[in-house]
């Protein structure tokens, strides 16, 4: 595991810093380490990414809350993994850079691309499906590019027109004293294009709500809380940006008598005290079906028996855990007269073995307490 610097530390703000404080600190760092000012400088690149990741978390009250309580691991548990590279940062922070620097993400020209939203799907699985894996189909409600206009929002046969207000650049310049301030064009919202005759099907939005069947392959060994990522199955991006991802969160229904301990499966099996004392051969349920288990003479309550390698496969390396049988020794609660007589006979033969042991225990604690 790699260690990461504390996000507050990275931005150089206190833990109770306000949103605007955080933003202005980030702006300074982003200016300082911006790749356009530090071409081919690996160290600056790292700083730039680190600051972006910190800002991305601390600007979002929900992420910030998780980070405050659980640290980096808490966020990883929620599927947050920071940024892959510059493109990632520019596509998430496009707007912010615009108001920071008065220009858009400098690496892009024309209309702004944006990655589509990630989606979440909660899936219920039975214990066995989680243990052995499954293939299934789910219906995902999401936005998709309009089939009629292909996503550009224009009535088929027409084309988007260059925005007359900004001349297609998506930005408007304004002079303020010595400075020229550039802002996003409010008419085309930065796209540089306007729709003359909007598509009838999507009313110019370019997107429509659809229900899509998505095939999901559940790997054997998933557990409650596992998260599967289906790359590109989220909502479509804008202006040719990549689609988001679909995250499937797994909820496993508990089994009637199998209990999972990491990759081992434990099953409690009742046996009588006679079987425990004399030994026996019994049939027990396992993940692989019923199996024969030899109970040795003198088995004690709670004793564990293992079928090695017959548990659940590890998601990491495929190695399988054990099927564990734990015996639950039952004392009879209703004896007939003959059984009772036989047990009394048996007790006589024990010649007070157990009571002697207990007497010694009592003596030793009394000796310890009264000094
Ligand atoms: Zn359309
Ligand atoms: Zn415009």
User: In terms of structural class, how would the helical and strand content be classed?
Assistant: alpha+beta
| C-alpha termini separation | 54 Å
Query: Which term fits the overall shape?
Result: elongated
Q: How many DSSP helices?
A: 9
Strand order, sheet with most strands: 10-11-15-14
Query: What compounds sit in this structure?
Result: zinc ion
Give an overview in words.
The chain has 371 residues and is α+β, with helices and mostly antiparallel strands. It folds into three domains: 1-108, Helix Hairpins, CATH 1.10.287.110; 109-143 and 208-254, HSP40/DNAj peptide-binding domain (Sandwich); 258-333, HSP40/DNAj peptide-binding domain, CATH 2.60.260. Helix content is 30%, strand content 26%. It has nine helices and 15 strands. A four-stranded mixed β-sheet has the order 10-11-15-14. A three-stranded mixed β-sheet has the order 1-9-8. It has a two-stranded antiparallel ribbon with strand order 2-7. A hairpin with a 2-residue loop joins strand 12 and strand 13 (289-295). Helix 2 packs antiparallel against helix 3 (42-58). The protein is elongated. The protein starts with 6 loop residues before the first helix and ends with a helix. The model is unreliable at 103-110 (pLDDT under 50). Bound molecules: zinc ion (2 copies). One zinc ion (ZN) is lined by residues 146, 148-149, 153, 199, 201-202, 206.
């Amino acid at each position: 595991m790699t260690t990461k610097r504390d996000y507050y530390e990275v931005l150089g703000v206190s833990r109770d810093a306000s949103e605007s404080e955080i933003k202005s600190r980030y702006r300074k760092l982003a200016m300082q380490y911006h790749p356009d000012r530090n071409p081919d400088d690996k160290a600056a690149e790292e700083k730039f990414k680190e600051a972006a990741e910190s800002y991305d978390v601390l600007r979002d009250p929900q992420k910030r809350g998780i980070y405050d309580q659980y640290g980096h691991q808490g966020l990883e548990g929620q599927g947050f993994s920071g940024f892959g590279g510059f493109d990632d940062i520019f596509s998430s922070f496009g707007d912010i850079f615009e108001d920071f620097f008065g220009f858009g993400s400098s690496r892009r020209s024309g209309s702004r691309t944006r990655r589509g939203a990630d989606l979440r799907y909660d899936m219920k699985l039975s214990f066995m499906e989680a243990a052995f894996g499954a293939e299934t189909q789910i219906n995902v409600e999401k936005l998709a590019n309009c089939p009629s206009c292909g996503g550009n929002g224009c009535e088929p046969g027409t084309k988007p027109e260059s925005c007359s207000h900004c001349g297609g650049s998506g930005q408007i310049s304004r002079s303020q004293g010595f400075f020229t301030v550039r802002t996003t064009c409010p008419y085309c919202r930065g796209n540089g294009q306007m729709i003359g005759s909007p598509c009838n099907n999507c009313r110019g939005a370019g997107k429509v709500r659809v229900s899509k069947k998505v095939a999901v392959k559940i790997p054997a060994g998933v557990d409650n809380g596992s998260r599967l990522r289906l790359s590109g199955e989220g909502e479509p991006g804008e202006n040719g940006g990549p689609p988001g991802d679909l995250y499937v969160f797994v909820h496993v229904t508990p089994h009637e008598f199998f209990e999972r301990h990491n990759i081992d499966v434990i099953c409690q099996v009742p046996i009588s005290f006679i079987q425990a004392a004399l030994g026996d051969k019994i049939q027990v349920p396992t993940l692989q079906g019923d199996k024969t288990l030899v109970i040795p003479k003198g088995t004690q309550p709670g004793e564990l028996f293992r079928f090695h390698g017959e548990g659940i496969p590890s998601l990491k390396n495929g190695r399988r855990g054990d099927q564990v049988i734990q015996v639950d020794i039952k004392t009879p609660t209703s004896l007939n007269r003959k059984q009772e007589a036989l047990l009394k006979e048996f007790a006589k033969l024990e010649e007070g073995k157990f009571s002697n042991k207990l007497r010694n225990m009592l003596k030793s604690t009394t000796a310890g307490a009264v000094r």
